[in-house]
Amino acid sequence: MKGLKQSLVTTSTKLFNAILQPINVLYFFFLFGCGLATGVILSSNLKNVSCNLLASQFSVSAAPTKTVPLATLPAFELPRIGLKEHLKVPDVKHDMDEKELLWRASMTPRIREYPFDRVPKVAFMFLTKGPVLMAPLWEKFFQGHEGMYSIYVHSSPSYNESKPESPVFHGRRIPSKDVQWGSTNIIEAERRLLANALLDISNQRFVLLSESCIPIFDFSTVYTHLMNSTKNHVESYVLNGPVGNGRYDPRMRPVIKIEQWRKGSQWFEMDRDLAIDVVSDQEYFPLFQKHCKRKCYADEHYLPTFVSMKHPERNSNRSLTWVDWSRGGAHPAKFSRTRVTVEFLERMRSGSKCMYNGNSTSTCFLFARKLCPDTLDRLLRFAPKVMHFNS
Ligand SMILES: *[C@@H]1O[C@H](CO)[C@@H](O)[C@H](O)[C@H]1NC(C)=O
Ligand SMILES: *[C@@H]1O[C@H](CO)[C@@H](O)[C@H](O)[C@H]1NC(C)=O
Ligand SMILES: *[C@@H]1O[C@H](CO)[C@@H](O)[C@H](O)[C@H]1NC(C)=O
Ligand SMILES: *[C@@H]1O[C@H](CO)[C@@H](O)[C@H](O)[C@H]1NC(C)=O
């Protein structure tokens, strides 16, 4: 535009001069024509130039040319981040307090389909006093299946970790609190384990294990069995008498009635939906904290009752952890070295009958307890042959 103005100014000066010198009328017309032509040519060229500039500045896909400032380009060349930043799993050793942790863990997407490839994982949650005693066997169990499992350990805060931890358990201890067996704080610990495991969106099934638990099938069998199961595995049954219904406190009415009271083993296996319900429960658990103390053994009643009230149709009502109560008494049998034989393992693996996804099966247990640490060398020896580890 500047060029056009200049040429107009030049033309008017020439016009003035021409009027002063009437002899040069012809010269004036010649100059006027030239000026006009120059103006027209210049203005149309300028329009083209500015149009091109605009076009290349606003078109994202345009190939970079010399006229586009280079500083604006790198933003389009970064690799795609997508949801990565939003689904970051916090460090196992975070400093969220109990309220913060449970609140964060209770979050769930309402769109059921994942907009990315999600490899579902099994969360193995160990509730222990000290170290995971059977770690070398678990080590063999997990070998070669990275990316399909997560491990969480809740152990007594006074445990020192003086012995070097085995690799798969290294750094997997969650912020833990003291637990008294039989008290409601054992359920707090279970909820703490669930909440920590829920922070990883990939975790789909959640297994609670003790330090004396062992796997009795190889990883692939356990993984397929859990992922394909249409049911949760929280043992839940009615038991009349002092150690069953006798532990019910009528002050739990009207939220929990005596006919809704259940008993069962604390060693559960559940899916993500139920795990979220458990960490979000603010109605039933406070009642247990108030009215199920000491001789009530809340860990044997809270989940069996909660699950049978909230999701009875999705529960198998049986535990996946084999245990021997045949001797009676308050504690199940403990097995030491000489009791561990191939036949013993086979009996745990397929000595029962139960239902799985609507079909009868003899694979009712995937884990077993209570195994003493001195059984480890035998278990390691039998595992490849009987349990098909490393196959
Ligand atoms: C933990 O370690 C300290 C010193 O390192 C020791 O005094 C204490 O007894 C240990 N506690 C346990 C439970 O092993
Ligand atoms: C579930 O079972 C089917 C066969 O019934 C199998 O093809 C599939 O791989 C199993 N799913 C998982 C997650 O293992
Ligand atoms: C488990 O028990 C509940 C009642 O507590 C019942 O509704 C449900 O059908 C039972 N599930 C199975 C598989 O038997
Ligand atoms: C039950 O067993 C039958 C025959 O063995 C099989 O065809 C069917 O797929 C099984 N159903 C389930 C749900 O596993």
From TrEMBL:
Q: Which PROSITE patterns match?
A: PROKAR_LIPOPROTEIN
Transmembrane domains' residue ranges: 21-42
* Keywords, sorted A to Z: Glycoprotein, Glycosyltransferase, Membrane, Transferase, Transmembrane, Transmembrane helix
| Cellular compartments annotated | Membrane
For molecular function, the Gene Ontology terms on record are: glycosyltransferase activity
Q: Give the record's membrane topology.
A: Single-pass type II membrane protein
Can you supply one Gene Ontology CC term for this chain's record?
A: membrane
Q: Does the keyword Disulfide bond apply?
A: no
Q: Kindly report the protein's main subcellular placement as a broad class.
A: membrane
Q: Which Pfam families match?
A: Branch
Q: At the top level of its lineage, which domain of life is listed?
A: Eukaryota
Cross-referenced PANTHER family: CORE-2/I-BRANCHING BETA-1,6-N-ACETYLGLUCOSAMINYLTRANSFERASE FAMILY PROTEIN-RELATED, CORE-2_I-BRANCHING BETA-1,6-N-ACETYLGLUCOSAMINYLTRANSFERASE FAMILY PROTEIN
Q: What is this protein called?
A: Core-2/I-branching beta-1,6-N-acetylglucosaminyltransferase family protein
Source organism per entry reads Salix udensis
Taxonomic lineage of the native organism: Eukaryota, Viridiplantae, Streptophyta, Embryophyta, Tracheophyta
